[in-house]
């Protein structure tokens, strides 16, 4: 089993589902930020709408973390001061008899504009 050093700190806010606000309305909620060590991430990839007048930019990042990160959809991760949302569940390549890197791939997305 291959093991990589987890040395890069990121901030994680875990999605807590429906939270009732002071008016009794159900709203989304996240936990307080916690520092987690990861292996690293790839350079961001961005895409823009081709339509004139649409200023939205979608930024995608692949984060590599230890299997124990226990991250889930809609959690928030901050990388170098930039907030991203987790897309889906982590991709885990460790479930095979040939190679277990000990890492999972977490897909992140941010919308700008």
The gist of it:
The chain has strands at 8-13, 15-20, 26-30, 34-38, 40-41, 45-48, 57-66, 76-79, 82-86, 103-112. By secondary structure, it is mainly beta.
Could you characterize what this model shows?
The chain contains no helices and ten strands. The chain is globular and about 50 Å long. It is 0% helix and 50% strand. Strands 1, 4, 5, 6, 7, 8, 9 and 10 form an eight-stranded antiparallel β-sheet that branches. Strands 2-3 form a two-stranded antiparallel ribbon. A hairpin with an 8-residue loop joins strand 6 and strand 7 (57-66). It has one domain (8-112): Thrombin, subunit H (Beta Barrel), CATH 2.40.10.370. The chain has 113 residues and is an all-beta fold.
Q: Keyphrases for this structure?
A:
Head-to-tail stopper; Thrombin, subunit H; mainly beta; 0% helix; 50% strand; 113 residues
């Amino acid at each position: 089993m291959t093991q990589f050093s987890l040395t890069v700190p990121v901030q994680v806010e875990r999605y807590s589902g429906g939270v009732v606000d002071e008016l009794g309305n159900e709203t989304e909620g996240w936990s307080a930020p916690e520092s987690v060590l990861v292996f690293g991430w790839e350079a961001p990839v961005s895409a823009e709408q081709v339509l004139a007048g649409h200023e939205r930019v979608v930024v995608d990042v692949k984060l590599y973390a230890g299997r124990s990160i226990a991250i889930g959809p809609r959690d928030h991760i901050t990388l170098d001061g930039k907030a991203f949302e987790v897309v889906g569940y982590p991709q885990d390549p460790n479930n095979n008899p040939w190679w277990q890197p000990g890492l999972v791939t977490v897909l992140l997305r941010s919308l700008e504009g």
